[in-house]
Amino acid sequence: MISASNQEVSSGGSVTNAAAGNGPSPAIADELPEPLTAEQLAAEWDEERPPHAGPLANVAAAVATAALGAAGLAMSVAMGLGSPEKPEPGLWPFIISLVMIAMSVALLVFGRKKLDAEAFSSSSWQVAAGVATLVGFVLVVGVAGFEIPTLLLTFVWLRFLGKETWRMSILLSFAVTAAFYLIFVVALSVPIPHLF
Amino acid sequence: MDFLSPVINGFGVVLEPMNLLYCLIGVVIGMLIGVLPGLGPAATIAILLPLTYGVEPVTAIIMLSGIFYGAQYGGTITSVLLRLPGEASSVVTVFDGFALARQGKAGTALGIAAIGSFFGGTVSIIGLTLLAPVVAGFALDFGPPEYTALAMLGILLVATVSNGSKLKSIIAASLGLLLATVGRDTFTGESRFTFDNLSLADGLDFVPIAMGIFGLGEILYNLEERHNKVQAPAKVANVWPSRKDLKESSGAIGRGSLLGFFLGILPGGGATIASLAAYAMEKKRAKNPERFGRGAVEGVAAPESANNAAATSSFIPLLTLGIPANATMAIIFGALLIQGVTPGPQLVQNDPELFWGVVNSMYIGNILLLIMSIPLVGIFVKILRVRAAILAPITVLITLIGVYTINNSIFDIWLVIVFGILGYLMKKFGFEPGPLVLAFVLGSLLEENLRRSLLLFGGDPAGFIGRPISGVLLLVFLLVMLLPLLQKAFRKTRSTAPAVEVRHEEKERV
Predict the structure, then answer these.
(1) How many of the other CB atoms lie within 10 Å of CB of B66?
(2) What would you measure as the largest C-alpha separation in chain B, in angstroms?
(3) Please, are residues B308 and B23 in contact by the beta-carbon 8 Å criterion?
(4) Contact status of B196 with chain A (Cβ, < 8 Å)
(5) A18: exposed, middle or buried (C-beta count within 10 Å: 0-12, 13-18, 19+)?
(6) Are B220 and A127 a contacting pair at CB < 8 A?
(7) What one-character DSSP code corresponds to residue B408?
(8) Residue A196 Cα, gap to closest chain B Cα (Å)
(9) How much is the pLDDT for B91?
(10) Nearest CB to A25 within list B104, B276, B397
(11) End-to-end CA distance of chain A
(12) Is residue B121 helix, strand or coil?
């Protein structure tokens, strides 16, 4: 939606740029970056986004969703379809799975070239690391309470995923853990497993 | 008098201290997340769903809706001062808002935006008050066939109007419908897709799905996206707009509010489209459109009025028909279901306190937001300096601990993580999460009504066309389905069809 309507907005934006002349007061203009036209802004935002993934990403997505649809289809048939006047439990999931497969095939055939998927980059490992800390959190929380995993998770996210300084990360992670303890255990007495 | 007395009683509900407090909490959170980088209103509302368990339904919805329309105010601040739209609905505000900031008139831009937002919001609440009971009255005799058609149309519209590829959105919606079938079949009692797992026997809960896909998914996505450059915001001097500025923008505010109100009602419509359309309209009407993009006050006033009006009026389809018009409304729908309230035409009559309490709370919320956006704006400008890196672990922990508190279940935390990964992957591969969550919310309603209708028609699907309302709705459904193909054919002959114009056509048809 945004990208579609940007065209509308930006077509006029370039005209205004050509006519740009009246200068803002110089003092403020020095502090702030140049004003950009709608087109330039859109281009800048585009640059900040990760690179597009090629058509292969769409093929992979279409194959994955088609496979999911096929699995749904097979399980729905196993549940029994019945007839429209006497539907069995499988009829409705059967219909949805059909739609899903049809749309996935359409994506594979017609939508492949649309570059709306993002490529994975080296910073995607940060996401993987983030997920790993979440998994670690869940594994530990039931056994050892929430304080230690909260402290460690905050520290890792601040220091290694957020590139904060050591000092900031250590101070903040203790502060956050203390705040969570006060809010959830002391104030709200939520039955989350805790040590103290 | 009959009409007015429940409206007035609604004010009594709002003025209860608890509700006032939650209204304040809601709008402050909304304003904050509008200003802070990272999370949008849908993600925030999803993450805060566990908070609503302990309170009355009215109180919960007052807070959640406060977050939604509060974010529309807050998003303006980053657009004007940092050239970064805080919310999708503030993207067009960047063009003239930042140009004004560069001319040293950041205060003017913020002030006009706040007044426009307040006016748009208030006009829209009045419209909502007048229109909602009428729509609800009209829909009172909807039967299963009408609901089936309406739910299908609602899902399709949200899927086709969303940002991403339409095919992918429909795939996401079907995945949502499929997830909704997990658990016991209400008609036969048989288990579906449970894989003999006891935790799945009662089906998937809405909260972990919404928290995972919207909340955690977005946090994980930002982890990769994060650019840590902290930009110094422009200085804000005088936020009280001059008489001249007000005069220049009053027309734009009025037109933006009306346009926003109508665009917000449409399923799939909402704040983003409204702001884009209002900006385009002002530019088209202007005597010298070349001022736009170089600091025209109207270019800030119109979209900001429109996005607030639309945010408010998008409650109409939810509260009167039980059909959420966008992703955020889908989450509020889920929150109502959790509270044991089924939104629909009966809501105004059966639960007037809830209905009018929520609607009237918006007046208070908008006044609070106006105060925060004009006299107190300095505080929120300071908050702009908080880094996303610091917020990320805090939001993640609120999500994990929050979902645990609902059922005291570790399984629910696992669900959030799984759906968080799914939400991240969907974003990476260009699938919109909104249609999935919306379809999940409407899934069981849709299936139930479809099966009831088929029973009613003796198994003959042609019965849908036989009833006037469901027939018309299905016709619109088909038109929306075929619209992309028609557009393609149309574009080949006339290559310059502005996207915003198409939205107007859609508006008239629905």
Answers:
(1) 28
(2) 70
(3) no
(4) no
(5) exposed
(6) yes
(7) T
(8) 17
(9) 84
(10) B104
(11) 51
(12) helix
Can you give the pLDDT at residue B231? 65
* Residue indicated by tokens 């539907």: A87
What contacts B214, CB < 8 A, 6 or more positions away? B42, B43, B46, B47, B327, B331, B423, B433, B437
Instruction: Say which amino acid occupies B426.
Output: M
**Total Cβ atoms within 10 A of residue B225:** 19
Q: Average pLDDT by consecutive 10-residue portion of chain A (196 residues)? A: 38 37 44 62 70 86 95 92 84 94 92 83 90 95 90 94 92 95 87 84
Share of chain B above pLDDT 70, in %: 93
Q: Is the pLDDT of residue B401 over 80?
A: yes
How far apart CA A6 and CA A4 sit, in angstroms, is: 6
Find the CB nearest B393 among A3, A68, A154. Answer: A154
Residue B497 CA to residue B492 CA, distance in Å, equals 10
DSSP character for A87?
B
* Residues facing residue A118 across a β-bridge: A52
Q: What is the spatial distance between Cα A149 and Cα A142, in angstroms, rounded to a whole number? A: 10
- Find out whether A161 and A130 touch, Cβ atoms under 8 Å: yes
Residue B381 pLDDT more than 80? yes
A20–B292 CB contact, under 8 Å = no
Q: What are phi and psi of B465, to 5 degrees?
A: -75, -25
Across chain B, mean pLDDT equals 86
What tokens does B230 get? 């902290």
pLDDT at residue B494, rounded to an integer: 55
Q: Which residue of B has its CA nearest to A100?
A: B171
- Quick check: B23 and B64 in contact, CB under 8 A? no
Does the pLDDT value for residue B202 go beyond 70?
yes
Question: Is B439's Cβ below 8 Å from some Cβ in A?
Answer: no
CB B254 within 8 A of CB B298: no
CA closest to B165 among chain A residues: A116
Q: How far apart are CA B270 and CA B312, in angstroms?
A: 9
Q: Which of residues 458-497 of B touch A (CB under 8 A)?
A: 458-461
Please state the separation of Cα A13 from the chain's center in Å: 30
Tell me the chain B residues in contact with residue A50 when contact means C-beta distances shorter than 8 Å. 224-225
Q: What is the pTM of this model?
A: 0.86
Nearest residue in chain B measured CA to CA from A2: B163
ipTM above 0.90, yes or no: no
| Window from B12-16, B145-149, B328-332, B485-489 with minimum mean pLDDT | B485-489
Asked if pLDDT for residue B301 goes beyond 60, the answer is yes
The answer for B 72-111 residues in CB contact with A (under 8 A) is: 83, 88, 91-92, 94-95, 98-99, 101-104
Position B67: which residue type? I
Q: What is the pLDDT of residues B406-453, one digit of tens each?
A: 888 899 999 999 999 999 999 999 898 889 999 999 998 899 999 999
Which residues of A fall within a CB distance of 8 Å from B223? 126-127, 130, 161
Per the structure block, which two tokens stand in for B218?
A: 């977005």
**What integer is the mean pLDDT of B297-309?**
93
pLDDT of residue B212 exceeding 70: yes
pLDDT at residue A102, rounded to an integer: 94
CB–CB of A35 and B294 under 8 A? yes
**pLDDT computed for residue B163 by the predictor:** 66
Q: How many CB atoms lie within 10 A of CB B456?
A: 15
Select from A2, A135, A192 the Cβ nearest to the Cβ of B163.
A2
Report CB contact under 8 Å: B220, A131: yes
